[in-house]
């Protein structure tokens, strides 16, 4: 305190080395700073209170409070009796409790009460103990005046309500020790903690586990800071020399990464704009004592350096006095025991993208005149100053960039190669980046110096010449003006409507400080087209592109980042697909679209993004106008361009006619070639047409099929069919052996085993035709043999008995049939389904009877040619073959095969089903026999005898009977024999036609 | 042995990315970078353009015909993140548009018709969506994060009878819905529907780069499940399993360029392979389980060797 010195320099550019001579220079470029040296304090931390009036300097031996607005003598020292250093200190940010300051000391958190006024006393009011190890960080809640979070390497994060200092009101348990804790500035429940290289995001309402876990860095995270403006943005500074900015709602990868030359101790957001200030880790003492200011939208290089420190910076904080909204100061406390106050020039705030409220006064320096002046003053400065001051170089280089063109002086970076992910910084840049390839729009002139641009939108319905003037501070909340020039053919109301729409579009963009020319132009053409379509009915061809894309954008809404193309596979340009049975569909590139440079090492790229790099700079546009990237991107994806290397040059041209030209000429339309590959397969359509399945004479059927195979020159199949015929013709029991000792034929090696291996052979070589046919043959044989009697019964009974009452009047309500609504919609299919299902239910009923029979029958005789354990396997062959027949449209053959499937095909769709209502007990059942009374349930409408043989029914009224009787009846009559009033023949035919 | 049935001038203004014939082999659907889908009627070597379907606003990657028992239905997927289902109701009309993906939809496949009208879609947003038709409405189910970075291909397992499939939980419950997918994580994944939920049943690792296509072999032939996958790593791998739980892989071949497409013949047994080098080859497994290229063998007869597609 005794050796206090107070130094004021007026220019930061001149490096401060202790007491320095004053250097008067252009104030515009100088950011003033004030130095106050306080030796012997040995303070290792510093805190600025929320009012911006007081600074607490804290060390092991004492606290000191300095009133910033007063002179040098206002430092007040308070002795401290502790053997521990003060780890961190922070004033309460709420005005209500702004006199409280929290410090950490060993494993305790102490709250100091600074009683202002004359008393000027600093007393320790609270001492919060819960941590078992050193408290590494603390943070007051940004809005709750009594809430404080502290963290420690004891793995706990305690949240305290200082009104109850006995215990924390909430303890968050992390597995790893925490080094930093920070409340979210905007979301009152969210707190972030750093644990070595990881971050945990907690919601204090769900404190048992972190809601987000981010593996942010590989090395220790020294600092955390939430963005004061964007709720989910978090900056982490780490030992690995980087600062990463995360969107905690989507933390899979850092949004942006800032790389410096030294490990970063703290990275803190500026309270204005999109800035970030970093300092190096103090312990390193690398000699790099300056603070760097970055703009988060461009992290390639710092935009400013705060210099003057002779030793490492221990702590820095922002001072913002409410009375002057744009008056910010950066206060630093350095190891050299100097407190430095940097006044933040509006120019710096501007560099950080800060939108100043009192626009006019701030913007004036940036009009061209003033820029010129600034530049001159800088040149003077350059002349006056000795070039040995290396720190100046950074600022200088920027001005050098500005010399290239005054109007394009960029305040952030002059490096044109680095494309800013956000938006163009100057009008010139915007003009150079704009995608002028908008249908019906022609840009006549773009003049960045005059800050204006003229475009013509025309087609045969309208001609609009529009001049757009950009104010000096565009696009920072200043929208351009739109002016219709002579030559415009639309009427005044249309003009008024257009300017209104354009103004709105521009407003929306510039409100967010974004450039708006391209969106305005697109809006212009969309509106014009809409107006013309509504005005003139013949505007059909107008709506061709924009409404489409506009609609597309509206429905999907979200930004479509072009970078995703990296993960979209490179499009197929050739391919082959087997379709139907034995058809191979091939498509490929025409010879003229073959890649010219086919070298063995040039492998086709894997991702779609490979196209973007090939078609010039246009792929960068999506970054500039994210919302419009989709149509652009779609335009850019012309796969053919990848293959037309020689045409790439012309694609770069923005003129639409050249683009059209680069499309493949008519002669070279892509072709599809369809091959008949059926000779490659054993399955043969001709065979399928000619094969028969004859239920009564199986050996005969096999012989017939052998003949078919012989006819079509398939000797291999002839052999198989002959063999099958042999197997199926059971040898007559010899007179020598009695029934008892004879092995049942199916168990003979020529029985089951032979058949099984035969079927398996065909199946394994994918001859599904033969496998299916053989399966059918032998299924039938076994049933025929075993359940001859049962089958006779089942064959004779088919559908239901007649009914009384006029069921035909409401076909859907009849108990005899149900027609699924889907059937009526599937033209051409209902009959198909009907047919199939009749067959199915028929075979089902057959099965039912078979089971009944089996329980009674002779066990020995039940042995089948097809082993029952393989039934589903054989069925699958039958079904697969039926499917093949289906695609050949051999529907009868298919139905024949499906009849022999023992399990009904699994079909999720519903279709017509016949039920019989027993004429004795009136119970309905699905089989021919009544489930209830076990009688044959169906009575002929004509002879009134139970139907055992073939039967027919009317699907409308449900009446029917013996086929013979009905056939005779309907040769002369059209009305139902029961007298129900149904014109059965007509009704049925119309129903089938639906 | 293989003869050209038809050569179709598609009239597309840009490259085509997929072509498929319907169930009966009478109609051809193609899709292209010119954002359109076209349907041709083919008869005796002639072609007539039946429909030119415009509805996508980006390149259309794939088309798929549904089983004709549901009517004439076609699904298409595109870079514009949409899946469109078209149906011929007198004229071809869009009956459903599925727009819940966040990135390009790369693949569509209809489920075996036994399960009903169900469509699986794989997208570059990493998810798979399953659309099932319920009369007039479509239910969408999503498998989020099926493949990190993106899903490139989907293929359904044929409806296999429970008796033949050892893992079926209830022997009488009917076939199990299974789905194979391939993605940018170099994996082939097998998904099984279990109580209305899709669970990852298996993760097949063999490829060293993005998997571009997967194809489930039809359920004919030997009682085993087989699956083919192809990849940017220029390999085609055939996977077989007898129980759908453990899979063995066989590298069919390492090709000269990336492989985009694998397709099984409908009766099984033959695999068509095509890729970035504009070539098509057909492969068949011999009785020793060795895969041999049969189209190469036919080079002498040369019918398949369309000069345009095979010439170097």
From TrEMBL, chain A:
Which SMART domains does this entry report, sorted A to Z?
A: RWD (SM00591), WD40 (SM00320)
RWD domain ranges (all copies) = 429-531
**Which positions does the entry assign to WD repeats?**
128-163, 214-256
| UniProt keyword annotation of Repeat present | yes
Look up the record and give one Gene Ontology term from the biological process aspect: positive regulation of TORC1 signaling
What is the organism of origin for this protein?
Neodiprion lecontei
**Could you tell me which PROSITE patterns the record lists for this protein?**
RWD, WD_REPEATS_1, WD_REPEATS_2, WD_REPEATS_REGION
This chain belongs to the protein called GATOR complex protein WDR59 isoform X1
**Cellular component per GO, a single term:** vacuolar membrane
Which keywords, in A-to-Z order, does the entry hold?
Repeat, WD repeat
Alphabetized InterPro entries for the sequence? RWD_dom, WD40/YVTN_repeat-like_dom_sf, WD40_repeat_CS, WD40_repeat_dom_sf, WD40_rpt, WDR59-like, WDR59_mRING-H2-C3H3C2, WDR59_RTC1-like_RING_Znf
User: Entry's Pfam families?
Assistant: WD40 (PF00400), zf-RING_16 (PF17120)
Family under the similarity heading = Belongs to the WD repeat WDR59 family.
Q: GO molecular function terms here?
A: signaling adaptor activity
Gene (UniProt):
LOC107222341
UniProtKB/TrEMBL annotation, chain B:
What UniProt keywords apply to this chain's record, in alphabetical order? Lysosome, mRNA transport, Nuclear pore complex, Nucleus, Protein transport, Repeat, Translocation, Transport, WD repeat
Record SUPFAM superfamilies: WD40 repeat-like
Q: Which GO terms describe its molecular function?
A: structural molecule activity
Q: Where in the cell is it found?
A: Lysosome; Nucleus, Nuclear pore complex
Gene Ontology biological-process entries:
COPII-coated vesicle budding; mRNA transport; positive regulation of TOR signaling; protein exit from endoplasmic reticulum; protein import into nucleus
Q: Does the keyword Membrane apply?
A: no
Tell me yes or no: is Nucleus among this UniProt entry's keywords: yes
Q: Which Pfam families match?
A: WD40
The WD repeats are found at: 9-50, 53-87, 204-239
Q: Which InterPro entries match?
A: Sec13/Seh1_fam, WD40/YVTN_repeat-like_dom_sf, WD40_repeat_dom_sf, WD40_rpt
Q: Which GO terms describe its cellular component?
A: COPII vesicle coat; lysosome; nuclear pore outer ring
Q: Source organism's superkingdom?
A: Eukaryota
Family, according to the entry, reads as follows:
Belongs to the WD repeat SEC13 family.
Kindly provide the name given to this protein in its UniProt entry. Protein SEC13 homolog
Q: Which organism is it from?
A: Neodiprion lecontei (Redheaded pine sawfly)
């Amino acid at each position: 305190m005794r050796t206090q010195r107070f130094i004021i320099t007026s220019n930061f550019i001149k490096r401060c080395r202790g007491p320095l001579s004053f250097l008067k220079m252009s104030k515009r470029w100088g950011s003033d700073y004030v130095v106050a040296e306080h030796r012997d304090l040995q303070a290792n931390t510093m805190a600025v209170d929320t009012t911006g009036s007081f600074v607490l300097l804290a060390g092991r031996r004492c606290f000191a409070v300095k009133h910033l607005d007063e002179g040098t003598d206002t430092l007040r020292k308070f002795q401290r009796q502790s053997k521990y250093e003060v780890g961190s200190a922070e004033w309460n940010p709420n005005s209500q409790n702004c006199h409280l300051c929290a410090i950490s000391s060993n494993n305790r958190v102490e709250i100091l009460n600074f009683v202002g006024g004359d008393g000027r006393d600093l007393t320790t009011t609270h001492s919060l103990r819960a941590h078992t190890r050193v408290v590494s960080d603390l943070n007051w809640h940004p809005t709750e005046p009594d809430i404080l979070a502290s963290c420690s390497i004891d793995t706990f994060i305690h949240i305290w309500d200082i009104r109850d200092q006995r215990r924390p009101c909430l303890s968050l348990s992390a597995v790893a020790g925490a080094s930093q804790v920070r409340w979210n500035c905007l979301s009152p429940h969210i707190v972030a903690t750093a644990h070595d290289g990881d971050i945990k995001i907690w919601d204090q309402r769900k404190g048992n586990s972190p809601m987000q876990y981010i593996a942010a860095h590989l090395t220790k995270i020294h600092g955390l800071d939430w963005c004061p403006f964007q709720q989910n943005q978090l900056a982490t500074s780490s030992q690995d020399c980087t600062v990463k900015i995360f969107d905690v709602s989507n933390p899979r990868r850092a949004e942006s990464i800032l790389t410096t030359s030294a490990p970063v101790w703290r990275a803190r957001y500026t309270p204005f704009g999109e800035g970030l200030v970093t300092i190096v880790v103090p312990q390193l003492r690398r000699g790099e004592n300056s603070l760097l200011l970055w703009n988060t939208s461009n992290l390639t290089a710092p935009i400013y350096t705060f210099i003057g420190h002779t030793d490492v910076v221990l702590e820095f904080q922002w001072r913002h006095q409410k009375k002057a909204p744009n008056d910010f100061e950066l206060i630093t406390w350095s190891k050299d025991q100097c407190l430095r106050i940097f006044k933040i020039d509006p120019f710096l705030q501007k560099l950080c993208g800060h939108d100043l409220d009192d626009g006019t006064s701030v913007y004036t320096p940036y009009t061209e005149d003033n820029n010129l002046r600034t530049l001159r003053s800088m040149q003077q400065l350059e002349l006056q100053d000795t070039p040995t001051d290396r720190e100046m170089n950074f600022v200088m280089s920027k001005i050098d960039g500005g010399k290239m063109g005054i109007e394009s002086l960029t305040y952030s970076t002059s490096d044109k190669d680095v494309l800013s992910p956000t938006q163009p910084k100057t009008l010139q840049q915007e003009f150079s980046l704009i995608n002028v390839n908008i249908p019906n729009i022609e840009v006549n002139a773009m003049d960045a110096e005059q800050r204006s641009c003229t475009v013509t939108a025309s087609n045969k319905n309208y001609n609009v010449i529009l001049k757009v003037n950009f104010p000096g501070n565009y696009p920072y909340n200043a929208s351009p003006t739109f002016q219709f020039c002579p030559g415009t053919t639309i009427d005044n109301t249309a003009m008024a409507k257009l300017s209104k729409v354009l103004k709105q579009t521009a407003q929306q963009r510039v409100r967010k400080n974004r450039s708006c020319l391209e969106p305005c132009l697109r809006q212009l053409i969309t509106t014009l087209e809409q107006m013309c379509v509504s005005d003139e009915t013949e505007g059909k061809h107008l709506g061709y592109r924009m409404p489409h894309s506009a609609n597309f954008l509206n429905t999907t809404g979200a930004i479509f980042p072009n970078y995703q193309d990296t993960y979209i596979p490179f499009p197929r340009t050739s391919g082959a697909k087997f379709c139907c049975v034995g058809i191979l569909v091939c498509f490929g590139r025409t010879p003229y679209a073959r890649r010219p440079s086919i070298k063995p090492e040039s492998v086709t790229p894997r991702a779609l993004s490979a196209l973007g790099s090939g078609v010039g700079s246009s792929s960068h546009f999506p970054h500039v106008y994210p919302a419009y990237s989709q149509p652009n991107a779609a335009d850019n994806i012309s796969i053919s361009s990848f293959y037309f290397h020689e045409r790439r040059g012309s694609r770069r041209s923005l003129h639409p006619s050249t683009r059209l030209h680069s499309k493949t000429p008519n002669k070279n339309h892509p072709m599809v070639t369809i091959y008949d590959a059926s000779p490659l397969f054993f399955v043969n359509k001709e065979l399928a047409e000619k094969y028969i399945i004859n239920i009564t004479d199986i050996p005969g059927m096999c012989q017939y099929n052998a003949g078919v195979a012989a006819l079509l020159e398939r000797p291999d199949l002839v052999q198989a069919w002959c063999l099958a015929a042999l197997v199926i013709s059971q040898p007559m029991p010899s007179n020598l052996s009695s029934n008892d000792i004879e092995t049942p034929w199916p168990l003979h090696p020529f029985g089951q085993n032979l058949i099984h291996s035969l079927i398996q052979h065909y199946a394994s070589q994918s001859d599904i035709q033969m496998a299916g046919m053989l399966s059918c043959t032998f299924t039938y044989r076994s049933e025929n043999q075993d359940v001859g009697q049962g089958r006779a019964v089942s064959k004779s009974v088919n559908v239901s008995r007649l009914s009384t009452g006029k069921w035909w009047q409401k076909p859907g309500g009849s108990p005899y049939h149900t027609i699924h609504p889907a059937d009526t919609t599937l033209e051409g299919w209902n009959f198909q389904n009907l047919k199939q299902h009749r067959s199915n239910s028929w075979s089902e009923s057959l099965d039912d009877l078979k089971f009944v029979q089996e329980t009674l029958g002779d066990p020995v005789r039940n042995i089948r040619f097809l082993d029952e354990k393989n039934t589903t396997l054989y069925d699958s062959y039958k079904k697969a073959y039926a499917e093949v027949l289906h695609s050949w449209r051999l529907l009868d053959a298919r139905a024949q095969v499906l009849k022999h499937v023992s399990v009904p095909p699994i079909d999720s769709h519903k279709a017509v089903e016949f039920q019989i209502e027993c004429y004795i007990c009136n119970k309905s059942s699905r089989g021919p026999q009544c489930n209830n009374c076990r009688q044959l349930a169906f009575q002929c409408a004509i002879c009134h005898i139970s139907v055992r043989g073939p039967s027919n029914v009317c699907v409308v009224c449900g009446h029917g009977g013996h086929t013979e009787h009905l056939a005779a009846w309907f040769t002369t009559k059209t009305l139902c024999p029961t007298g129900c009033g149904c014109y059965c023949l007509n009704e049925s035919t119309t129903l089938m036609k639906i | 042995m293989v003869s050209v049935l038809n050569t179709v001038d598609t009239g597309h203004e840009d490259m085509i990315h997929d072509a498929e014939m319907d169930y009966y082999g009478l109609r051809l659907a193609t899709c292209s970078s010119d954002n359109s889908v076209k349907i041709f009627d083919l008869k005796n070597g002639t072609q007539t353009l039946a429909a030119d379907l415009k509805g996508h606003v980006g390149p259309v990657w794939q088309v798929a015909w549904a089983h004709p028992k549901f009517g004439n239905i076609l699904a298409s997927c595109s870079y514009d993140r949409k899946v469109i289902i078209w149906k011929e109701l007198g004229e071809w009309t869009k009956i459903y548009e599925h727009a819940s993906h966040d990135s390009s939809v790369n693949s569509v496949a209809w489920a075996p018709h036994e399960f009903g009208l169900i469509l699986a879609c794989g997208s570059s947003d990493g998810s798979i969506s399953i659309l099932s038709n319920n009369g007039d409405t479509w239910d969408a189910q999503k498998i989020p994060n099926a493949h990190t970075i993106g899903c490139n291909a989907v293929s359904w397992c044929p409806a296999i009878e429970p008796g033949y499939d050892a893992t079926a939980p209830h022997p009488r419950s009917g076939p199990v819905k299974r789905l194979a997918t391939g993605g940018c994580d170099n994996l082939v994944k097998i998904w099984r529907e279990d109580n209305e939920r899709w669970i990852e049943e298996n993760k097949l690792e063999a490829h060293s780069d993005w998997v571009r296509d997967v194809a489930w072999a039809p359920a004919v032939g030997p009682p085993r499940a087989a699956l083919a996958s192809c990849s940017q790593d220029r390999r085609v791998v055939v996977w077989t399993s007898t129980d759908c739980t453990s899979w063995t892989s066989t590298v069919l071949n390492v090709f000269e360029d990336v492989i985009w497409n694998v397709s099984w013949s409908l009766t099984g047994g033959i695999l068509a392979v095509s890729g970035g080098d504009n070539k098509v080859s057909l492969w068949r497994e011999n009785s020793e389980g060795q895969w041999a290229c049969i189209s190469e063998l036919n080079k002498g007869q040369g019918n398949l060797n369309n000069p345009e597609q095979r010439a170097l």
